[in-house]
Give the backbone structure.
Amino acid sequence: MSIEQHIRKFAYPIAILFPWLLTPIAFLITDYLPNTNVQLLYLVMVVFISINVTVELAVINALSSFFAYSFFFAESDGSILIHGQEDVLTILLFVFSAIIVGYVSTKQKRNVQKIREREFMTDIELELLEELPKAQNTEEVIAAMRDALKPWRENCVLITDADNWVTHPMIRRITNLRKTYLEELLKLRLTPEVIANIPDLEQEYDVYFLYNSQQVIGLLRIATENIQYLPKDIFLLLLRQVNISLERTRLAADLEKEKTAKENELLRSALLSSVSHDFRTPLTTMIGATSTVIEFGEHLDKQQTRELLDTVLEEAQRLNRYTQNLLDMTRLGFGQLQLECDWVSVEEIMGVVKKRLRPLLIHNFLKEDIDPDLPPLYVHAALLEQAIFNVVDNAIKFSPVNESIDIHCSKEDDRMIITICDQGTGIPEEERQKVFERFHTAEKGDRRRSGSGLGLTICQGMIMAHGGSVSIHSNPKRLWDKTNPGCCVRIELPVSIAIEQQDIGKSEE
Amino acid sequence: MSKILIIDDEPQIRRFLQIGLTAQGYVIHEAENGRQGLAMAAETPPDLIILDMGLPDLDGQVVLKKLRDFFHAPIIVLSVRNRESEIVQALDTGANDYVVKPFGIQELLARIRGLIKAFGPSVETVQKYQDERILIELQERKLTVDGEVIKLSRKEFELLKRLINNAGRLVTQQQLLREIWGGTHVEDTHYLRIFIARLRTKLGDDPSNPRYIETEPGVGYRFLPSVEN
């Protein structure tokens, strides 16, 4: 126990005995200063004690002091009884002093206490006010409120829709309301009239409402009878702040929903227009070419027929690539991309990519630079091939005739870096993020050699599914050329440690 | 005159295959669903079956399994892209090779030719492979590259032997692992990769420009026949 608690235990005895214990000091003083007003000495002590104890104890002390004084210093020594009218005055003065000082002191202390409580309350409110703007949604607002209520958690409960009534002991303990009433209150649909009525409801059910302009979010029940200090005005201010935040988060959520709906709408129309165009174009060529061969077959020479049929094959393959892109895009969009990873070397991937690119590499050629001794990748090979294929396909579309497309593979720290650089028209800095958006094409209209606009989106999706990243940079080898600065697409993939090295010893011979 | 049975529900695909393959001298029979295909294969066994995995009545894998109960000549399956697990499963169940739709006739023809030759009556295990750079003598277990004799470890040799004996045809990872390392190692594809890498180095084969060994990631490997083929 602290000293304070010790003293409190012995409060009464101390109040009574203190003057008697002080008396020897009084004697000492009177020995040196014979004309001292001893009464004043005792009075000072009474005042001193009154400052620190309750009024009751102060009075007791005052009386005890008088008797001590009377016993030791009054006219007839050795008696504690009241003798003359001066004694009556003395005792009254002692007692009055005790009462006045005691009262004032107690009042002062109460005020200080009140101020401290308000300070405490304000601290909580300040903390809450700091947290509330950070809340991104309704749940976070409620959580902040719960945090703020922690000091009183024994005596208050915040009920929301999400709470499990049956197992919540607090709700049962301090709410004398039936569960059904509370449920009904929580389900209230709010209109301006109902909202105006809320203070009455709060009064009636003895709960505080937490709400936004559409619905009730929670009910707050505080057992104020058990809480000594709760400056109501500050508390109500707090509640109002919470309600404002609840409305804010509701508006934010609505805005988000609208944004998403709009985005989906835009995407849908972009998809429709893309399919409509990118299917029709090759089909037009195919139908045109084949119907020509059918109609005029006998009048065409072998070369012309061959040319038309080549075109049909080319366009059909283009249509095939586009269909594949669409499928990939849809799967990526629905998160249905299931990775079936296996170990494969970068060289093997490049081999397959080059094979698939052969029919497209008519006016351009690939320059390959793969660092030796690169570790194997743990990836879904077909997806990585498609990603790289799309990038090179893109590069071909924008490369001038007879220029190379450079592919470089290396390892940096724990990442595998594959860079594909072209010598073409390049991508300006402002566009470098946008090219990854769905259906972003460099040119509009029927001359869209840039394709469906899905290639880079798919590439990014597939690489990111592996935990990697794709970015666009300037071609460092062509910074001097303003017309054809070219660009580099940089693919980064994480490299997992191949555990095979130690195993391989066992599998020898 | 080799007989080929085509089991595919798409009449247009059957038509163009019939035209193309007949022009190459094959005799074509057609079935438009799984049950019909099984019946025809049992009645008049062909020399090769082309089986589409997307049949209307029975799942392609089921038809494949039932076929393998009584039919032991080569089967090529037609599959859709991005269905690698389906392809691997088919190869495991007994298909010999696969082609992904849409495909050109040349690709299919190459596979057909290779398989019919391998399973034909005059089949003998390959003893020797030679081109301007390398000479592989399986009997002597000798590999000579640019005049220099290169030593092969036992497993490397086993690997090369199987690839060459199936030149032009797909050999699955599982088959190689099972036969060379044993049934318990069928999942250890990293062993296979390392040995293929060693073989490639010894043959002087660049994996990004494969001349001899081609990888089909996730599925298996193919030894590429010499250019004259």
